[in-house]
DNA sequence: GCCGACGGTCACAATCGCGTCACATGCCCG
DNA sequence: CGGGCATGTGACGCGATTGTGACCGTCGGC
């Protein structure tokens, strides 16, 4: 899977910066009006706050577009509220897309991963394969032996994370964090229910028992 | 699908320049009377305003025809009003085609894609095939298993865009933008209605359920 | 100028997704 | 062998999201 450079500004940065760490495969940078501007090679996507301290998101979009290093970036502008005029202005300033806040990290993560997977020319959409399991992050779809798995979004996210960390014990806290949940605080027991649902879906697709319980610790995806 | 070089002048440039970016597959250039003239290899098509600040569209046509780099270009001249005499003059000056403004981006996009599909040399991706689905952009027609789909223009554009981005989550914003809509700002909920109509048409043709909803994110065209 | 096709919006109903609870079952350890 | 904690799972209910029929304005053709 190819690295993608993600830029986050303002509130969004605070929201996600602490999340994109460790095992995530993102090259990560901060982008500030006139501050350090760490740019690396490869496809870039940016999430730009509509409101920032000292520079509007619009201006930020224009600068990204103007900079030859980032002119091809996929820019998502994050609006405070659902205002049609702002949307138009955002697209006009070079944004490719917009989302309306307050942001649901869960969705941002889906978006980021989908962009990562589908970045650049279509057709190269990277897939994550693990035995019979195929995760197509761009299509937000998983398959077992070629057959589509019938997964709810949450189950998909769970499986995606398992597939990214196979044969490793993942605690309930890991899983809750990985799915981007944080508000309201999720009861750890809820994870058990997620697991149950995921197991059922995998069983229904003939995948057998893939998710093993590790008592008092968490769960493991057995890639075997 | 092969890249095509598109030149836009004057008001048209302003209208579409901000649109042809990112995932679109166009090499893009601006063409000004005596200004920079970025020319790349490959088939070229040009949209030339009838009225420009300091040079008439007619003169522009002649220059394009005279320039060996662009003498084979497909030139569409954009008239202010529907004047038969102007049309004749335009064709005489070397234009291959004309359209009457004020421009509807939606239509320009249809035109551009149709040209791209049928452009110059035969053999250049005239058709877009995806399983049973065939998109004939030049004819503005889609088929399922050889049988023509009964689609309205909007539905066709939608399907065309889906076919260009199969197995990728496309947000409502993506779709609105892809169809060239911008004025008046389109309500995102409207996309749901487009989808509903497209689904019905596909179903009627025996294509089954091709367009999958991705809750809170958008829609995906499932190629399989 | 009339008429039909097309496309955008609205409002309402249906559905879906998911977090939680409650209870059943299972496992570990003394 | 028993107590107690850990996990599995069916059921429930709330919200949010989506599907869709109906309505209506617009445009183009006749």
Using brief descriptors, characterize the structure shown.
alpha/beta, four-stranded antiparallel beta sheet, Arc Repressor Mutant, subunit A, Rossmann fold, 224 residues, homodimer, DNA-binding
What percent of residues of chain A are in strands?
15-25%
What order do the strands of the largest sheet of chain A run in, or round the barrel if closed? 2-1-3-4-5
Helix amount of chain A, in percent?
25-40%
The biggest beta sheet of chain A is recorded as: 5 strands, parallel
Q: In the CATH hierarchy, what is the class of the largest domain in chain A? A: Alpha Beta
H/E element sequence of chain A: EHEEHEHEHEEEEHEHHEE
Q: Which stretches of chain A are poorly predicted, pLDDT < 50 over at least 5 residues? A: 19-41, 120-125
CA-based shape of chain A: elongated
Could you state the CATH homologous superfamily of the largest domain in chain A?
Response regulator
**CATH architecture type of the largest domain in chain A:** 3-Layer(aba) Sandwich
Mean pLDDT of chain A: 72
Largest interface: A-B, 27 and 24 residues
| Tally of discrete structural domains of chain A | 2
Briefly note the CATH topology name of the largest domain in chain A: Rossmann fold
Radius of gyration of chain A: 19 Å
Number of helices of chain A: 7
Secondary-structure-based class of chain A equals alpha/beta
């Amino acid at each position: 899977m190819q690295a993608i450079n993600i830029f986050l500004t303002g509130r969004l940065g605070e929201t996600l910066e602490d999340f994109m760490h460790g095992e995530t495969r993102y090259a990560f940078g901060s982008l500030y009006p006139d501050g350090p501007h760490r740019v690396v090679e490869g496809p870039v996507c940016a999430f730009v706050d509509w409101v920032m301290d000292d520079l509007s998101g619009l201006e930020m979009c224009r600068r990204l577009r103007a900079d030859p290093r980032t002119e091809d970036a996929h820019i998502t502008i994050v609006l405070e509220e659902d205002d049609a005029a702002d949307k138009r202005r955002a697209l006009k300033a070079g944004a490719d897309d917009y989302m309306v806040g307050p942001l649901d990290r869960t969705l941002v993560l889906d978006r980021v991963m989908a962009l990562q997977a589908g970045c650049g020319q279509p057709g190269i959409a990277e897939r994550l394969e693990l035995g019979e399991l195929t995760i197509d992050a761009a299509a937000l779809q998983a398959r077992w032996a070629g057959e589509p798995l019938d997964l709810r979004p949450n189950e998909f996210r769970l499986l995606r994370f398992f597939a990214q960390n196979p044969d490793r014990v993942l605690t309930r806290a890991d899983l809750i964090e990985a799915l981007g949940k944080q508000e309201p605080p999720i009861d750890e027991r809820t994870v058990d229910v997620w697991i149950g649902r995921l197991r059922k879906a995998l069983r229904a697709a003939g995948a057998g028992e893939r998710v093993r319980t590790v008592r008092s610790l968490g769960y493991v995806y057995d890639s075997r």
